[in-house]
Amino acid sequence: MALSREQLAQRVAQELKDGYYVNLGIGIPTLVANYIPEGMEVMLQSENGLLGMGPFPTEDEVDPDLINAGKQTVTMATGAALFDSAESFAMIRGGHVDLTVLGAFEVDTQGNIASYMIPGKLIKGMGGAMDLVAGADNIIVTMTHASKQGESKLLTQCSLPLTGKGCIKKVLTDLAFIEIKDGKFHLLERAPGVSVEEIIKLTAGELVVPEHVPEMSFQRG
């Protein structure tokens, strides 16, 4: 069974490490803030000038002036700091973010990512994605494995305009967790109830499949 948005966020949260500075992109990545393992200290950074985001607020906690880069209301963790976007991008461009989690339209076997526009559709702009893919060594993309039309988003070569080249190392989809290396996709884990055959069928780029592919675990902590 394909993973839900919440399950995708839970699995990404398992890649966090104590003391990490992490930037969460718009969409599914923002949900990761709700699943940080107990006892782990992680500082979430937003390119609009906030370091130390907490989980999404309850109705009683909502402060309309406190938002993330996607204009969603957020909370502040103990020790959080506010600053202007120039300082925020200096942190990103200077390589001071340990992990970046982004959404995407397409990823290919060369680690290229297309995430900001589909020709003929409304373009909101690239936002901070171009800086994030250039300034971070550790990037995880989370997205659906295929489009609503059933077309693979994991390609030999991206067909859409690129956000960054050769920068993506891991991809978590609703079907699988995949590593990109040596110009190929390498299957690491599969979603519970999803067969290897289903993943192969919906992966357009070359996929290396080990003899045993474990199912994902969603235990927290």
UniProtKB/TrEMBL annotation:
<dbReference type="GO" id="GO:0008260">
    <property type="term" value="F:succinyl-CoA:3-oxo-acid CoA-transferase activity"/>
</dbReference>
<keyword id="KW-0808">Transferase</keyword>
<protein>
    <submittedName>
        <fullName>Succinyl-CoA:3-ketoacid coenzyme A transferase subunit B</fullName>
        <ecNumber>2.8.3.5</ecNumber>
    </submittedName>
</protein>
<dbReference type="InterPro" id="IPR012791">
    <property type="entry name" value="3-oxoacid_CoA-transf_B"/>
</dbReference>
<dbReference type="InterPro" id="IPR004164">
    <property type="entry name" value="CoA_transf_AS"/>
</dbReference>
<dbReference type="Pfam" id="PF01144">
    <property type="entry name" value="CoA_trans"/>
</dbReference>
<dbReference type="InterPro" id="IPR004165">
    <property type="entry name" value="CoA_trans_fam_I"/>
</dbReference>
<comment type="similarity">
    <text>Belongs to the 3-oxoacid CoA-transferase subunit B family.</text>
</comment>
<dbReference type="InterPro" id="IPR037171">
    <property type="entry name" value="NagB/RpiA_transferase-like"/>
</dbReference>
